[in-house]
UniProtKB/TrEMBL annotation:
This is J domain-containing protein. Gene3D superfamilies: DnaJ domain. GO terms for biological process: regulation of neuromuscular synaptic transmission. It is a lipid-anchor. It comes from Oppiella nova.
């Protein structure tokens, strides 16, 4: 593990797809926009609604991770 791996800014921004793309919102989205998009996507990809679809389960995890970062002002500022 390098010093860069310990940097929280690095971990939040080096995760692959943009968190904004995952939630389908622009970078200028408000907290309410993020919440609405999260709820819509969480209902669509929830594992209980797609029990035999592993892709939906992974997408649901990504959606939750994106929401947890973008809905927290401090984490979102670090990510941005």
């Amino acid at each position: 593990m390098t010093a860069m791996d310990n940097n929280p800014m690095r971990r939040l921004s080096a995760t692959g797809d943009s968190l904004y793309i995952i939630l389908g919102v622009p970078k200028t989205a408000t907290g309410d926009d993020i919440k609405k998009s999260y709820r819509r996507l969480a209902l669509r990809f929830h594992p209980d609604k797609n029990p035999d679809n592993l892709e939906s389960a992974e997408k649901f995890k990504d959606i939750n991770r994106a929401h947890s970062i973008l809905s927290d002002v401090t984490k979102r500022n670090i990510y941005d």
